[in-house]
Every structure is written in structure tokens, then in C-alpha cells.
Amino acid sequence: RKLNPFPPPPSGSAVTTATSSIRSLMLPILNLAQTGSLLAASSDGGSRQCSASGDVGTQLDSSSAVDLELHHHFLQPQELLDLQQRASAVPEADWLPCSCRAEAATAVPAKECAHVDVGQDPVAAGVLGRLAMLTGSSTSLETLPLVRYRPGATATPLHVDHLPDGRVPDASAMIYLTAEASAVHFPALGRTERPGTGSLLTWRSVDEEGRRLPASAHAVSEHPASASQPRIAVSIPILRDAGGAAVMAPLHFGGCRRRLSEGDADCDSGVHGDPHLTLAHGGVADFRGRDGKFWNFLSAANVSVNLMTQDGVFAMHGATVNGSWLTEAHVFAITSAGPLQLSYFAWKISADSLIGWSNGTCGGRPFKLIGWAVTPRRDGPRNRQLCGEALLQSDYSSVKIALPEWNITIAPKAVPDWFHRRSDWISGPKVRLDVQFSLLVPERSLRVAPHGIVGQSFDGSGVAVDGARDPAPLPGQNLTTTAMAEGAIEGSWEDYLMASRFETAYKFSRLGLAEAPARDIATLAGRRFASAAADAGHTTATVSIEGGDEATKSYRRLAELN
Questions:
Q1: Collapsing DSSP states into helix, strand and coil, what is residue 88?
Q2: Three-state secondary structure along 389-425?
Q3: What predicted TM-score, i.e. pTM, was given to this entire model?
Q4: DSSP β-ladder status, 431-439 and 406-414
Q5: Longest dimension (CA), the chain
Q6: Which in 127, 223, 252, 429 has the greatest CB count within 10 A?
Q7: Residues with Cβ < 8 Å from 290, sequence gap 6 or more?
Q8: pLDDT tens, residue by residue, 42-70
Q9: Is the dihedral of CA 368, 374, 379, 381 positive or negative?
Q10: CA nearest 252: which of 278, 229, 285, 221?
Q11: CB-based contact 552:351 (threshold 8 Å)
């Protein structure tokens, strides 16, 4: 089967150049004449697809085909050894639960995710080069997303792959570094694939018109407690950039938004105009805010974070959306060196370079932090500041505030980002912010339970709570977002409105307290479901997509292709 979800790039294009530049690094060349290309031109203009019952259906247009392919022995022995060694060197603290909310609560998470740096390593470049040839995509990856199933990990239920913002990738590629007792079930196709160590599994989730392929829904087998080692794979989404070309991205799959039963056609997810909240334990909500207003998102014993929302209008999937973005972040912390204040303004960041810039004070002493791309050192005074026990680190775009109990990461993204065309912007800010909150200690060990729009979800309950969300925009629709996380927050959204950037006092403030109870989830109206263990040593929540720099640099690389 040879399918055509993307037209081949024109000769001399950036995609062609990126692909040809790595051919000299390729080890064995796959026989593309036999295997075809997941994203290459079709020779017959059609395909065959399995029906929902598992029987082979009639001849269909290529837009309906998942094109599931298993390539045995994709990795050569030295490539396999090299990638296995890199994966085993990832610090244990860097492995965090993946964001699929449908995972059952268990002492052993169903999936854990991490990244591994490969830089310009020729072995990794050779692997990615062959993958690019096979899938008809281009790559400039310097970090690889990893997924791990530890012995005893539960099965991952039926789902369609999603990125952290809910968008479905055009295709998925899984390179198995260890594959003991591995099975991937595609019930709508009537197929179960059992990839071995060193093999490659690819499939499509979106057709050439951008429509989802429900038959790409799949489940992953449990990893038995008797297994001798974890099951680890390189997990790479393939996406269209702003010019329509296929590009590998160093992003983790965000997992399904709800459990899918046999025959379910889709996942309950989407990309909307509001800031999206991924709460502790996996709950989700949208929060529009009010134009130019500050809101408290985290209030803890020694730190408080206020974020500004700003309205914007943009086009999406043929609809016009009147939504909002986060455009300012202001952090106040109590440290042994005195009060720490840090401000990050999206309007001070170039949408073209996304090089970071922030400023603040430590005990009244002013400082600035800028992206390391314009300085010779990453640990100089303009890239790193120590304020008592608080460490502030500037990366290419992001700023990370490391506190004894919390890590807070702020990162800019262009509006529109690389998921959309520049013409999709209509009005409002050109740069937005994403923020990530990571609690470094068990939630139940906190004498002062945190609060705030996001902070309150670290409540030690082990229960996820969903709040209000806006509907996905439909073609031709004019949609104004209205969700304010109702159902997932205590009180009313008005309770979290702050008078100024560094204001800390409000109804649910926790700053400076010696003791405060967690919220009572029984009073919340949102849907509740069991999730991660509340005594886990590390819990993460995000506002919008993610606060990681590897995504920012990926967005920048993709923009440069156009």
C-alpha cells in the first residue's frame, strides 16, 4: 500500500534539503520500493481498509486508510545498543507519568515519559534519516521523546493519539528499544501487532484533508510484573507544519481525553481559544479570564503566581474564535534572601525568535534574565540567578524557578503557533505564555495545602476533577469562548481576580500561612475520577500546552522551514 496524505515537497524545498542532508549518515537503506512511504505519493490512488468488524472492506479513498505497518529489525545492532544506552542514562527523576487521563490509578503508572538528548549524534541521525525516508517527513530532532512501561504497568486503554494540547498528529512512529511481551491492538482494523526489540511501528491518525481516522484507535498491552526489564520505545509524532510539509516533532503524546469503548469514533478533546488547564491528577478545564486582568493560579506557603489573560481573535478549522491567551506571568516568593519577584511579559518577546527575556528583584536587588542563545554562557549572571534557596534559570526561551517544593516554568509561544498559518491571526497578542507547575514533594506532606485556579488541584485526594470546557469550533462558526473552569474550582471564578501583578491577598490565599487544609472535592460540581496516587513524590499541572523549552525550540525550527 502506498498512500498520499501529503503531496511530495517541491524539489529544492527545505523538506527536501533536510532529508537529503542526512542520506550520507544512513546505515542500511530500507527498500522503499517494497515498503512504500507512509507519507509518500500514492501509486494507485487508493487503499484497502479494515471495517469496524475487522473484515477487509471495499476499495476506499486514501483519506480513509490508517496504513498500519510493522517493520521488523528497523534498528541495526549498534543503533539499538546506542539508543538503549542513552535511554538507560535518563535520570529516574526525569521519568514522569504521561498525561493520558484514562490510565487506571495504580502504584505503577501505565506510561512514563521522558526525553533523551541526541544532539548531532551520527547514529541517531542515521536512524532518523531512515525514518524520514520511510515516512516522507523531515527532521531536525535533537531530543527524542521516550515512553516507558515498567514491569507491572497496567494496559493503556483504547485511544487515539493526542498531543498535549489535544491535537491529533497526522502519523505516529514507535521505535522499540525493548519490547518484551509487547502488543498493540487496533480493534477496528482487526489487527494486533507484536513489535519486537528494534522494530518500528507506524500508522496514520489523520487523512490528507485533516480529518481524524477513528480506526487508528488502539490499546497497548500491560507489561507483566514478571518482565525482566521495562518496555521502552522512542515515540515520535509526525505533524504538518505551517506550509503543509510533514515534520517530526519532539513532543509526547498527550493520550486520550476519555476512555473509548469498542466502536467509539473519537476522543473528547480539541484545541480551543482559552488557556487550557491540565490539572494535577489529570483533570482538564478551560479558563477564558477577562481582558487585561490578573488571576491567581498558584498560592502556596512560600510562593504565589498571578497570570494575565488577554483577548484575541483567530481562525481555526474554518471557524472564527474569539478567545484569550496568557500574556504575563508574575511570581512572588518568600526566600531567605528576602522577597523574590519575577515578571515575564509576552509582549517583550519577539514572535520570530522567541528568545526569552524576564526581570525581577531579589531582596530589592534588580536583575534580568535573557535567553542563552544571545549569550556565550548558560550559567552567567544574565542566565542564572540565585535568590536564597530559589534558583532561576533562563534557557533559550523559558525561565524555570526552582524552589524547595515547587518548580515553575514559563515559556513563550508565537500566536499563531506552528499548528496554524500566520494568516489565522486576526487580532490580539502575537506571543502567548505557557506555564507549568511541578510539585516536588508528596501532596499529603504539605502542611499548607496550595490553592489558586491550578494550585488547588494538588489536594492530596488522588482524584481528578474536570471543569468547564468550550466546544470545538465548527467550520463557518463564530465562537466566543466562555468557560471559566467552573466545576473544578472552589467558589466562583471572580474569587481569583487579583488587583495587581504581585497582589497575594484574596479569599483562598495561602502565602505566609503555617497550616491550611486542602479543598473539599465533595463540594465541586465537575466530573470526578480516580487518578494518580496522592502520595506520589512528583505531581505536575500545566496551563495551556506545556512549559518546556524543547517544544519552543521545535516550534522555532519548524517556522524556519517556511
A1: helix
A2: CEEEEECCCCEEEECCCEEEEEEEEECCCCCCCHHHE
A3: 0.56
A4: antiparallel
A5: 72
A6: 127
A7: 309, 497
A8: 333 332 222 222 222 222 333 347 889 99
A9: negative
A10: 278
A11: no
